[in-house]
Specification:
Number of helices: 2
Distance between the termini: 28 Å
Radius of gyration: 15 Å
Keywords: Membrane, Transmembrane, Transmembrane helix
Structural class: mainly alpha
Number of strands: 0
Largest sheet: none
Shape: elongated
Oligomer: single chain
Order of helices and strands: HH
Number of domains: 1
Helix content: 55-70%
Length: 56
Amino acid sequence: MLGIAAAVLFFIAFLINAADIATNDVFASGNVMLLGLTLLALHVAGVGTSLRSRRR
C-alpha cells in the first residue's frame, strides 16, 4: 500500500514539475518527491506489510 502511495506522489510531483504549476513552498515538486521517497523507503523496509506470524 505504501508503494502505491509513493507512486501517486511521484506522479503528482512529475505533473507539478512538467506543467510548471506555480505552488507554494509546501507543495513544491521537490517536497512531494521527498514524501514519495519516504513512503517508498518505508515500503522497502517492510512497514505496512500484512505478513504476520502466527504462533500456536
